[in-house]
Design a protein that fits this description.
Layout lengths: L7 E16 L4 E14 L2 E7 L12 H18 L8 H5 L6 H18 L4 H4 L6 E3 L2 E3 L4 H13 L4 E5 L6 H10 L4 E5 L9 H6 L7 E3 L7 H10 L4 E3 L6 H10 L4 E4 L1 H4 L2 H13 L3 E4 L6 H11 L13 H4 L15 E3 L12 H7 E6 L1
Parallel strand pairs: 5-6, 6-7, 7-8, 8-9, 9-10, 10-11
Antiparallel strand pairs: 1-2, 1-13, 2-3, 4-12
Helix pairs in contact: 1-3, 9-11
The structure holds 2-succinylbenzoate (OSB) and magnesium ion.
2-succinylbenzoate (OSB) binds next to loops.
Length: 368
């Protein structure tokens, strides 16, 4: 087996305004920070993207923390390491607790590099087969007018799966009208924990709208409440925030705390663990789809590779590059047509950095 070492590491922090603010009960996101990681050896470079947010409004990790942990702990370990496979990284990082999004960004870059060295697309190396991936867009809304406009727009843009942000205050008649207007579309509802301590009479009405699934009604550690609702509801329940590790995915299955896993690779610590979650879910016939983090094309390309696995059973948060961004940081913008996004058949993740665009967003750099 071929051994390799990482010879060069580059990290860049970027900050990019969103085309339209992402407004939910949890947070108004107007700008997105990210860390783009490059790992090189010989003449090959692998790419990763850290999906932590600027502040801890969604997960504990933040961009500042991730940068610090990568620079002072993860990268020094990485530079000492010798690899035969990206899975070797687990051992080198095992004495560094948590910080899964920081670890995932590095692991992504290592997987991309590994696949490029073998001259093979990443999705293939992960055991994936499909290259046309079901796309999906998310709709945030303040008024009924905005809800209707955004759903119409999504249909015009070719999406066949639309995830609508909901809360107990959402207008149920308007939601029902929108869902009935497009009987061929898949509608998901994402509650982002807003139904914690919601009166049952309101909650029950959300079971009659016609959503394909109801995502994360309660807080991330409210396993028993989710389990009870899964028993009571006709609409399948999905868990997003609750799934922070492979063990959480197992817990969902063993407890039947929900019917479906929303897999965010950064949150569970990377590509290898994500592939394990997908395999486990398939064995136990639980639905899985890839969740989005308002990310750039690097993270999206990694998620697409995972979505090519057979165990991924529902369309993920795969919106086109031009949905959130005026200009994505990749040279091959990801597009949606007839409800699908296509994996680019090239070694690794198949996409490359647009250096001009990246440099215009860059505000901090570290090299080693
Ligand atoms: O709950 O799925 C979520 C974005 C940021 C943080 C959490 C969530 C979301 C989304 C958008 O719903 C997903 C996307 O990037 O398309
Ligand atoms: Mg969600």
């Amino acid at each position: 087996m071929e051994l390799f070492k990482i010879e060069h590491v580059k990290m860049r922090k970027i900050i990019v305004p969103l085309k339209n603010p992402f407004q939910t009960k949890l947070q108004h996101v107007q700008e997105r920070e990210a860390i783009i990681v490059e790992l090189s050896t010989g003449d090959q470079t692998g790419l990763g993207e850290c999906v932590a947010f600027t502040t801890p409004w969604y997960t504990e990790e933040t961009i500042k923390m991730a940068w610090f942990v990568m620079k002072h702990y993860l990268i020094p370990e990485l530079l000492k390491a010798t690899f035969t496979h990206p899975d070797d990284l687990t051992n080198y990082f095992s004495h560094i607790k948590g910080n899964r999004m920081a670890k995932a960004a590095i692991e992504q870059a290592l997987w991309d590099l590994y696949a490029k060295r073998q001259q093979r697309p990443l999705y293939e190396m992960l055991g994936g087969s499909r290259t046309a991936i079901d796309a999906g867009v998310v709709v945030t809304w303040q008024t009924v007018e905005e809800l209707k406009q955004k759903v119409d727009r999504a249909v015009e843009d070719g999406y066949t799966r639309v995830k609508i942000k909901v809360s107990p205050q959402s207008d149920i008649e308007a939601l029902t009208e929108v869902v009935q207007k497009y009987p061929d579309l898949l509608f998901f509802a994402d509650a982002n924990s807003t139904f914690t301590s919601c009166p049952p009479v309101i909650l029950e009405r959300f079971d009659t709208i016609g959503f394909r699934l109801f995502e994360q009604p309660f807080r991330e550690d409210d396993w028993l409440d989710h389990q009870r609702l899964t028993e009571q509801f006709t609409t399948p329940i999905a868990l997003d925030e609750s799934i922070r590790s492979y063990a959480d995915a197992k817990r969902l299955v063993r407890m039947h705390a929900a019917d479906c896993i929303v897999l965010k690779p950064g949150r569970v610590g990377g590509t290898s663990r994500s592939a394990n979650v997908i395999r486990f879910a398939k064995e136990h016939e639980v639905d899985v789809w890839l969740g989005g983090m308002i990310e750039f094309g690097i993270s999206k390309a990694h998620n697409l590779a995972l979505a090519s696995l057979e165990g991924v059973t529902l369309p993920g948060d795969f919106s086109a590059s031009n949905h959130f961004w005026e200009q994505d940081i990749i040279r091959e913008p990801l597009t949606v047509a007839e409800g699908k996004m296509h994996i680019i058949e090239a070694p690794g993740i198949g996409v490359t950095l647009n250096e001009d665009v990246l440099r215009s967003y860059e505000y901090k750099r570290f090299e080693s």
